[in-house]
Write a structure and sequence with these properties.
Layout (H helix, E strand, L loop, with lengths): L1 H7 L5 H17 L3 E6 L1 H13 L3 E5 L8 E6 L12 E7 L9 H10 L7 E6 L5 E6 L3 H7 L2 E2 L2 E2 L1 E4 L13 E8 L4 H9 L3 H9 L3 E3 L2 E2 L12 E4 L3 E11 L5 E8 L1
Antiparallel strand pairs: 1-3, 2-3, 4-6, 4-9, 5-6, 7-8, 10-15, 11-12, 11-13, 13-14, 14-15
Protein name: RNA-binding S4 domain-containing protein
Keywords: RNA-binding
Pfam family, one: YlmH_RBD
């Protein structure tokens, strides 16, 4: 696997690559399936690449259909895990009526602030009345129930909901466009995804307003790859849907998905 690791994955991804390799080799050796924590879309893609090398299956589930962050079960190709095997729990978060509107970032910051690990958290979904649903691992539930009492200055009440109203979740629409970039630098992608000049895209990156796959990135020259999710504080998120070769002039065709 060393050639795959060095050629296709970033240095910052080596920890998850190593963990997925260990899981896969263990499943291959023992025949016993393994379950990961929550993975980003990019990490889920890495899991599929690695498991294919071991001729293993990867099943993904994040608590509901089309969840962005999902847990993976690595298993023999003949196994078919059920939803209950993923141990994903939905926690309902009720906000008092009349409270100021709380955004995804407000909830995420509050959750991380009480000691919930990022990989223990899946999606944060919302109902039209601003009620939130936090999807988490079974191991994180007790911490949430004990310590998660407010978001910013707003007090909240929480409870486990075994039947969340998934059909009522406000859907994130992915608006896709195909553009050409001079390079695969993060600042070039950010400029096209959020409608700004490349020179202006450098400032929010350097000032800590940009995350790449949920991790702060302050390097404008960082190269983007397929399945990356880029977040710009206050403006939303965009995803690298595909990188599709070069134009005659040498520019790179990239499909960008913008969450709206």
């Amino acid at each position: 696997m060393s050639d795959v690791v060095h050629q296709h994955f970033r240095p910052a991804e080596q920890a998850i690559v190593k963990r997925l390799e260990e899981f896969s080799s263990g499943v291959e050796r023992t025949g016993v399936s393994r379950r990961t924590d929550f993975l980003s879309p990019r990490e889920a893609w890495i899991a599929q690449i690695i498991c294919a090398k071991y001729s293993l299956a990867v099943s993904l589930y994040g608590g509901y259909e089309h969840a962005e962050r999902q847990r993976a079960i690595i298993s023999d190709v003949h196994e078919h895990p059920g939803e209950e095997n993923f141990e994903v729990v939905a926690v309902r978060v009720d906000v008092p009526k009349g409270s100021s509107t709380l955004r995804h970032g407000d909830f995420l910051g509050a959750l991380l602030g009480v000691g919930i690990r990022r990989d223990g958290l899946g999606d944060i979904a919302f109902l039209p009345d601003h009620t939130a649903y936090v999807f988490c691992t079974k191991q994180m539930v007790n911490i949430l129930l004990r310590d998660f009492t407010q978001v910013g200055k707003t007090s909240v009440t929480i409870r486990v909901d075994e039947q969340p109203p998934i059909s009522q979740f406000l859907a994130s629409t992915l608006m896709e466009q195909k553009v050409t970039l001079q390079s695969l630098r993060l600042d070039a992608f950010l400029a096209h995804a959020f409608g700004m000049s490349r020179s202006k895209a450098v400032e929010p990156i350097r000032s800590g307003k940009v995350q790449l796959n949920h991790v702060l990135c302050v390097e404008p020259s960082q190269e983007i790859v397929e399945h990356d999710v880029v977040s710009l504080r206050g403006s939303g998120r965009a995803r690298v849907m595909g990188i599709e070769g070069n134009s005659r002039s040498g520019r790179i065709f990239v499909r960008i998905g913008r969450y709206v």
